[in-house]
Design a protein that fits this description.
By secondary structure, the chain is of the alpha+beta class. The protein has two domains: 132 residues, Beta Barrel (OB fold (Dihydrolipoamide Acetyltransferase, E2P)); 261 residues, BirA Bifunctional Protein, domain 2. It starts with a helix and ends in an 11-residue tail after the last helix.
């Protein structure tokens, strides 16, 4: 904004005050929403509106102003709905024209008058009374070119919402997605709870935490990376179906599919396993799509995703074998070194990894995950990648875990939850050794959680769904940050 423009707007602000007009009044008269007015009056033609001569009142932001001789037009927008207002010399009071001369695009006003239609059929409200509600001291961006820069769009999201209807649509899809997930779980007897965001010990995932300090207690605390361990404490406490939708925080990089602050839905069901959670995840996302979009056929970045039918289920071993010809469970690939040799024999290139399980994960992430466009469950993960999941009875190298992939992204993660406290302690001990060896994402020892398990936890299925990614797919958004109203950004430099 130019300095001249700012000074001009401030001059009008002071002139209004000099005339005794408060630019930011505390009260306004009664009104109808613009959406209500349009819904009620759209069926009526010009003759019907003239016959009714009905006086209505609306309020909104001025988004454009036009003059045609003795006739003025200005558009008002309120909560995404638009309507045209007018003032004709000789009909509108002089006070209306005096205020119109001092208005700027971006100001908020209340308009009261009768509804009529122009020659082109445009529904219009004749301004017989006009009240300023809030003066705008900065101009709005030019609609098509003012916020082309992505960084500026995210940093000034309020302006992005004003000029970009697509941003508003994505925000609505996200909100309705969260409502759909909540309604699905509520209808099945799950209890929504809240667990600590500030935790004395982080856990429930492999991630680096953000740290903070509690001054009164002289205590280091962590922003949670997962809700899991607290929700499972509630299962121990006898709440057999429990869930939480909330923010998690992981001190990691930013990409099209990652943001350090994100929203998760985690639910836990007693007397269930990962097979039950597969059925639950499938039904949940189908119902969400139906509620939000009214269809099970979703277009995402030019590809049609079919959410109907029974979604395929493949083991991680089979998926990697089909994509790379490497059999991760072959006896000749049972150590990190042997598996690395098998990868080389098949002329595959991956980033070197320190363990067998991480090598498996790298193979899957590079050669399988991008191809999983249609909904697909991948099951039976290496135990070292899953310190909180129950072992498979027929192969102790693997655990009862699945991840759900759609559009080449992981949308969900679930386990048959480990409820053997001795096995859990051994896994935590192993993770502690890995942390001492330099693994910054190793799971910490949690004695309080182990104590809870020792009181007994029933067989339990747990499921986590990445809400931002689900919204990304349902809204056909190219990036996770498009679905987050205020994504994390680098510091703004002058």
């Amino acid at each position: 904004m130019s300095e001249a423009e700012r000074e001009s707007r401030r001059a009008r602000l002071e002139a209004l005050r000099a005339q005794g007009i408060e630019p930011y009044p505390a009260r306004m008269g009664p009104r109808q929403s613009i959406a209500e007015v349009r819904l009620e009056l759209e069926p009526h033609d010009a003759e019907a509106l003239d016959a009714q001569a009905r006086r209505i009142a609306i309020a909104g932001r001025v988004t454009s102003m036009r003059s045609f001789g003795r006739l003025r037009f200005f558009d008002l927008v309120e909560n995404g709905a638009r309507i045209q207002a007018s003032a004709r010399m000789g009909e509108a009071p002089d006070a209306v024209f005096q205020l119109l001369d001092q208005l700027d695009v971006g100001d908020f006003v209340r308009v009261e008058g009768r509804a009529w239609r122009t020659r082109t059929g445009e529904l219009t409200v004749a301004a017989e009374a006009l009240q300023l509600l809030a003066k705008s001291l900065r101009p709005l961006p030019e609609k098509w070119h003012g916020l082309a820069d992505v960084e500026a769009r995210f940093r000034q999201r309020y302006l992005d919402l004003l000029v970009n209807q697509e941003v508003r649509r994505v925000a609505l899809v996200r909100s309705r997605t969260i409502s759909a997930l909540r309604a699905f779980l509520d209808a099945r007897g799950f209890l929504e709870v809240e667990t600590p965001v500030l935790q004395p010990l982080y856990g429930g995932a492999a991630a680096r935490p953000f740290t903070t300090r509690h001054n009164l207690y002289a205590q280091d605390l962590y922003l949670r990376i997962s809700d899991e361990l607290y929700l499972k404490r509630l299962i121990v406490g006898g709440i057999d179906r429990v869930y939480e939708i909330g923010r998690n925080f992981r001190n990691e990089g930013v990409s099209r599919k990652h943001n350090p602050e994100f929203t998760m839905m985690e639910c836990y069901q007693a007397f269930a396993d990962y097979g039950d959670m597969m059925d639950l995840a499938q039904d949940m996302l189908r119902e969400a799509a139906e509620r939000v979009l009214g269809t099970l056929s979703v277009m995402f970045q030019g590809k049609e995703i079919d959410l109907s039918g029974t979604w395929p289920r493949h083991t991680m071993r089979d998926a990697i074998l089909e994509a790379t010809k490497v059999d991760i469970l072959d006896s000749a690939a049972s150590t990190p070194e042997q598996l690395a040799e098998a990868v080389k024999r098949h002329k595959l290139e991956i980033e070197p990894q320190s363990t067998w399980g991480k090598t498996v994960d790298e193979l899957f992430s590079k050669f399988v995950e991008p191809s999983l466009v249609q909904p697909t469950f991948i099951t039976d993960y290496p135990i070292e990648l899953s310190p909180l999941a129950k072992r498979k009875a027929d192969d102790p190298r693997l655990v009862e875990r699945f991840e759900l992939f759609v559009a080449g992204m992981e949308l969900g993660n679930a386990f048959s939850e480990l409820n053997d406290p001795d096995d859990q302690r051994a896994r935590f001990e192993r993770a502690r050794r890995e942390a001492k060896a330099g693994d910054e994402e190793a799971h910490p020892m949690d004695e309080d959680f182990l104590r809870a398990l020792e009181h007994g936890m029933p067989p339990t299925g747990g499921l986590g769904i990445g809400v931002d990614r689900v919204a990304m797919v349902l809204a056909d958004a190219p990036s996770l940050r498009e679905t987050i109203l205020f994504p994390h950004l680098r510091p703004e430099h002058s």
